[in-house]
Amino acid sequence: MLVAFAGGKRLPVSPFVVDPQKLLFSLSSLLAAAATLAIAFSASLPRPWWALLTVYVTAQPMAGAFRPKVLYRLGGILTGAAVTILLVPNLQNSPELLVLCLAAWTGFCIYLAVLDRTPRAFLFQMAAFSSAVISFPYLDDPGNIFETTAARVQEMTVAILCVTAVHALLQPWSATPAIRARVQSFLGHARRWTAEALGSHHTRLEDAHRRALAADVTELGMIAVHLPFDQRWAPATRRRVTALQQQLATILPLASAAANRLDRLRESADLPPMLEALLADVTDWLDDEQSDLHRVGSLVRRCEALAAAAEARGDWNDLLAASACIRIAEFLTALAASRRLADRIGSPGRPSAKILAAESFSLARDHGVAALAGLATASAIGLYCAVWILLAWPNGSATAAFAALITCSFAAQDDPAPVIGRYLVATLKTFPLAALYLFVILPRVDGYEMLILTLAPALLWMGYIQADPARSPQALPMFSCFIVAMGFLARFQADFALFINTGLAQLGGIVATLAVTRMFRSANVLWTARRILRANWGELALLADIRRPFRPDRWTARAVDRLGQVAARMAVATVGDRLHAADGLADLRIGRNIIPIRRALSHVPHNVRHRLGAVLAGLAVFYHERWRHGHADAPPPGLLEPIDRALEALLSLPLDEHRRPALRALVGMRCNLFPTAAAPHIILPGVGESA
To answer: How far is residue 392 from each of residues 201, 388, 403, 624, measured CA to CA in Å?
Structure first.
């Protein structure tokens, strides 16, 4: 029996209940398909089946997510068509050179698509496989390539415009509820994890469990990109989502930092009674999902008062308690601000000046990973085109076209082989249905109206699958097999030999792509994860280098984004893999500790600035060495002494708005880098030694 959640309770759901939203999406796609076929038949377009397939390839359940992709897809189609007309007639007498140029062009487009990571990537992706699927089937006879290209562009454009019009009228799904649901999921997960981390019976959760929260922040940004196309209050909503992302990005390191300090305190001594009482109240507030936001103010003031009193004493345990209190206060503030912003998403009204000033959430981009994806795609296309040309395979051009389509569709994934394997299975399962329609049902159909009514059950069923996130990867191969195998034309043709040849070409393209993918890409996931971690270490080295520009907000966003990318790849790492030793959250906390130290440099005397500079220089060298070696090496013991001397120097000064955050950052940095080190010996003027 299936289970759903409503109002925090688990409710049984029958597996046969139809979801109205998914059915609306499927019906919208069917109406778009009917309109597309009507136009294609009326205009005597040569390949109506190509237009029909484009309808379902481009349809997206989320209306706001679909519209920007439409614009980019149209641009990609025109770009791919222009490249086809440029290359094919000029290189028709040199098929090897033509294939090489098409493979290079496709690889370059995939490189740009993987690098971009926004809806704009669809422009490059569509430019890649539109040129491939237009060119390859006609390389043997390129004389009519201009007319062929124009026809393909017309068919795809008609389909995309029909889908756009239907989705604009029916609005299957909106991006705003999806954002609200994602934010509420993140906040609920963060509350539960933090309540456990702060509790007296703290148990460490798995790294993947904590890191998975970072993936929600990145996904939220991907959805937010679509908001300008979703509803009339979208500009205000998008700014709120940008501000919300920045708040959510701070929740992870703040909560983990507070838990880290409490761990250190519990290892050395019992928690002070006032801190125990504070933690109990904070945990009660976190456990209550309907908790009042007005209570946050009093909890934050208690945290700040405890922190100020502890820092005045200057003992190491007191500094740990103060650091824990401040991180709890900052976490509660960020959590409350996130809840307020989440409640305002999608509502009218002008955002505050602070929200208007929020910068876009910066995504991390890796040229190396993008280049590998582009190179693998170009190599795959070149390889199966070489086999086709050398063997003089009659259906090789169609196989190459299908293989290029599949390769480009999944090129952005680290290891596309499992998805392509499921693609093959879904294609095999759909062939009997296509044969039933082509040889049993369609011969008895007369007229356009009867054709649409006859196709409706199959297309509605596959469209419903497309709307289900758990089963949507099955939809594209099902549509491809069903539509291409039947080959909708203006006049019905039930050619068994053509049906078999088309099916074999499809299967050949899938099998060829699967084989090439396993050779080129299957061992890539862990390599990509390690590369992402290395990039983070390199940016930490730059962040600590006082000779480099100081852009803390951009660094935090990219670090959280990378944490989310690594989270999706940790599942394939074995238990003993060195990837597990690289604690992305610890790196994130250290990076956030570097920021207040750099901000304090211009607000301290020269001798203190020198000690803080020594800490930053040591961190820059440490993370540069990590980046150079590619391993999560332990910090050098020589870095502990500069941190202790910097602590001592700051404690000898009156604490102000710049020095106090730097002091707290040094405490956090020492806990993260040297968790098992003994308490520092701090000598304060007129006080003596304090341990």
So the answer is: 70, 6, 17, 53
Using the structure block, give the residue that is written with the tokens 């908001």: 227
Distances (CA, A) of 24 to 28, 173, 230, 250, 418: 6, 9, 17, 38, 30
Helix axes 448-467, 48-58, angle to 10 degrees: 30
Summarised one tens digit per residue, pLDDT across range 269-298 is 777 888 888 888 888 888 877 777 788 888
Instruction: Locate 268 and state its tokens.
Output: 């050395």
- Of the candidates 596, 579, 584, which has an alpha carbon nearest to the alpha carbon of residue 536? 584
Any alpha helices (H) in 314-366, and if so which ranges?
316-344, 353-356
Token reading at 17: 């209940």
Rounded to an integer, what distance in angstroms lies between the CA atom of residue 486 and that of residue 483? 5
Q: Whole-structure pTM over 0.90, yes or no?
A: no
**Among the listed ranges 212-216, 292-296, 473-477, which one has the minimum average pLDDT value?**
212-216
Q: State how far the alpha carbon of 323 is from the alpha carbons of 20, 238, 247, 254, 330, in Å.
A: 50, 34, 20, 10, 11
| CB-CB contact of 289 with 228 (8 Å) | no
Task: Please say if the pLDDT value at position 39 is more than 90.
Answer: yes
- d(Cα 371, Cα 380) in Å, to the nearest integer? 14
Length of the chain in residues, anyone?
691
